[in-house]
Write the structure tokens for this entry.
Amino acid sequence: MKIIEVIEALIDTADSDQEVSHLASDFQKATWFLESYLDDLEYSLRGGVDNCNFVTSGTPSFNDEEEGEEYVRSLKRNCDNMRKLSAVLLKRGA
């Protein structure tokens, strides 16, 4: 299923344009939370993998710097996709 099909399904289940706007707002907030987590993770990784593993709780432990960097790259891709979803929802709900 394509992302646009998921968005259209979300919009189809909405009872009003106002509800679509609320969905868009929720996606924007979720993106902000994810980006804040990303900032915190990048900050803790600057102290090294051992530091990051020590100060985080829900984040998986990393065996080395490359593993941590790959996790950050994946998280950045997810943030980018969330921003794109938010933008599409905002356009569709307008």
The chain has a mean pLDDT of 86. Helices lie at 3-13, 17-46, 49-55, 65-93. The CA atoms of residues 48 and 65 lie 7 Å apart. The two ends are 24 Å apart (CA to CA).
